[in-house]
Amino acid sequence: MPDTRIQEQTAHPQQQAIDKRKQAEQPDQQPFIQIEALYKVFGNTPSTVMPLVKEGKSKDDILAETGHTVGLKAINLNIQKGEIFVIMGLSGSGKSTLIRHFNRLIDPTEGRIIVEGTDVMQLSAKELEQFRRHKMSMVFQRFGLMPHRTVIENVSYGLAVQGVAKQTRLEKAQQWLETVGLSGYEEQFPSQLSGGQQQRVGLARALCTDAEILLMDEAFSALDPLIRSEMQDQLIELQEKLHKTIIFITHDLDEALRLGDRIAILKDGELIQQGAPVDILLKPADSYVEAFVRDVNRARALTVETVMKPALCRISAETIDEALIQMKKVPGNYGFYVNEEGYQGVISQRSLEAAALKDGGHRLDTEILEEIPSISPEALLESVIPETLDTDCPLPVVDENGGLQGELSRASLAEVLGDGTDHRAA
Amino acid sequence: MADSSWLTKFPQMDRTDLLAIRKSLDAAYREFSRSYGDLIESFFDPLLSFLIWFEKLLLQSPWWAVILAVTVLVYLASRSWKLSLSVVLAFLAIGYFGMWENTMRTMSIITVCTLLSIFLGIPIGIMMARSNRVQAIVTPILDIMQTMPAFVYLIPVVMLLGIGKIPGVIAVVIYAIPPVIRLTNLGIRLVDREVLEAATAYGASPMQRLFGVQLPLASPTIMAGINQTIMMALAMVVIASMIGVKGLGQPVLKSITNQYFTLGLFNGLAIVALAIIFDRVSQAYAKRAQKHMQGTKDA
To answer: Is residue A103 part of a domain?
Structure first.
């Protein structure tokens, strides 16, 4: 049962702490998009099969007994405004079916879809058209561009559907084409462009309607790896400016970890785990997710923040003697010097002892500090590996305001980058 | 009936019963055509007057004006000097061999039949593409229309409307309309699902989807259907001439009954020339209109 699994997961104390932090970041308690108890059964008479699905019969049994395919089962999702929500799963897991429910390209067999308080299921055909025109836009795996229209006509398609005057919509389309770096290609036809360029057109088309919600169905999956990571960068860059609510479908965990603020994992139409990328990576809910996570390049997926340990030795003393006392209370032969203005630097026990021999009552000043680089909590592990290995003592993790957040030692780095299965306990 | 003759001889219906069925059906249809024939005929009056007007236009305009007009149309459609020149030569030859008037009559009826087939066929094709039920109903009807010998459905049409242009047009349209219907249906059903989904996702209404996406993307297939329709309409010219449609078919019919080989050959060649002109022009037009859609198959 997927529900109980998720509950078990959330019951984990660390998970709860993260959830609380998430909620603190989101003062808006009402989720922007809400999916409640969504079921989709494919077949001739789906409603007759629903009792079996709810009884908990397996997908294969239902297919054998009734010839109906269970596409989605008991999906509950809350998506917050302004986040990139990634839905991940292998082919056949129902992720493309799920994303088509948001704008009702596919109607559910049962369940509710609520966007900003509006129940999408209650909309009439006309209202649904209006909803699709103004609220959501979509980017497709194989681009979905119209081969008989030029690039600029494709980009302005959403506005053309809305009935916006030609002059206005072409100007706007021109701006978005420039944003995605395709000015000069206006009068080309999609077939004359490369895959990456075509998907940029698809992205520009989606942005051109100013819809708040962006649905991206395996948008970058058809592109080669280099272009894919370029497009990911571009999306992240655009998102920093635009703050759209993005629902992103992918089968690639690296992509999910890179883009997602939160990730949901689907398997055979059921939701297995939902959470921040770190939770997925470090606390996989079951063996399926674990298998997924095993091959991920953790150095590229995790930030310093997620693996750092609390700084053991904070030295806040005024004089060298007091500092020496503080240092001896904890193991290790180094300390991080912190005063009212925040983190100042690293002091080694050796230099402290040497200074104490000269004048123990002397004020602790910055001359005694070692030259050791500090690292940012948001930095990716990958980028701090050289510094961590080059330095004997753990590296201080310092935030933008100069506050000491923690320390990163070689040992904790090795532990995370080593075999992931050990780390679940940590 | 205790003997076992049914084993060797097919157990047939009684002859008198069969006769009764035939008689009553014939009588019923005759009754129907007597009481409603005039009404149905008057329904087709606008079409008839258009047919007559169009034929007169082609016949009464000077021959060089007609050739000029046709050549201009051919050039606009195909943008090919070669093709336009061939058209001029073909018409000059037809006129020189004394077949100008018949050719004009045939051209007028073929044009009207083709337009009628397109105007009726494309909407039917669209409806078929929209609903599997409509498709299931229409497909066998099209099968019957294409395989039923033309003479068989000429009988009720002639009984109802007599001989003349209108029955001819109806017979030609029945024979020629299936390709355009079938290929419109097929073309729309073959439109890339993701492109159509994209249109829907951006809030396109069913009409916007039809005219903005489905028909333009189906147009290569639809054009192939129109091309086939034109060819089949030309093939019906001789049969239509049996119910009084004037044109190149009548001399052919005459030469069959009288064994005039040369007369038949000349008129036959004129039909072939018309067919080639219609075919090449419609294909060149289709190709030109869809140039940018080539090479869209890449992922």
So the answer is: yes
Same domain flag for A123 and A265: yes
Option in A105, A147, A191 nearest B201 (CB) = A105
Measured CA to CA, the distance from residue A295 to residue A87 in angstroms comes to 18
Report the number of distinct structural domains present in chain B. 1
Nearest beta carbon to residue B200 from set A105, A146, A148: A105
CA distance B44 to chain A (A): 39
Question: Which chain B residues are closer than 8 Å to A215 by Cβ?
Answer: 201
Give start and end residues of each alpha helix (H) in chain B.
15-43, 45-60, 63-78, 81-96, 100-130, 132-147, 150-161, 165-189, 193-201, 206-209, 215-235, 237-241, 249-258, 261-289
Residue B12 counted as domain residue? no
Nearest CB among A143, A157, A189 relative to B292 is that of A189
Q: What confidence score (pLDDT) does residue B114 get? A: 93
Q: Does B205 touch chain A (CB under 8 A)?
A: yes
| Residue-range definition of the domain harbouring residue B171 | 43-290
> Which residue from B minimizes the CA distance to A99?
B201
| Å between B176 CA and nearest CA of chain A | 29
Q: Please state the domain count of chain A.
A: 2
| Residues of chain B contacting A195 with CB distance shorter than 8 Å | 298-299
A252 lies in the same domain as A359: no
The string of DSSP letters for A168-220 reads HHHHHHHHHHHHTT-TT-TTS-GGGS-HHHHHHHHHHHHHHTT-SEEEEESTT
What ipTM, to 2 d.p.? 0.78
Task: State the residue for tokens 């935030």.
Answer: A399
> How do residues A195-252 score in pLDDT, each as one tens digit?
999 999 999 999 999 999 999 999 999 888 899 999 999 999 999 999 999 999 999 8
Interchain contact, B202 vs A148, CB within 8 Å: no
**Measured distance CA(A303)–CA(A296) in Å, rounded:** 14
CATH code of A58's domain: 3.40.50.300
Query: Is B93's pLDDT higher than 70?
Result: yes
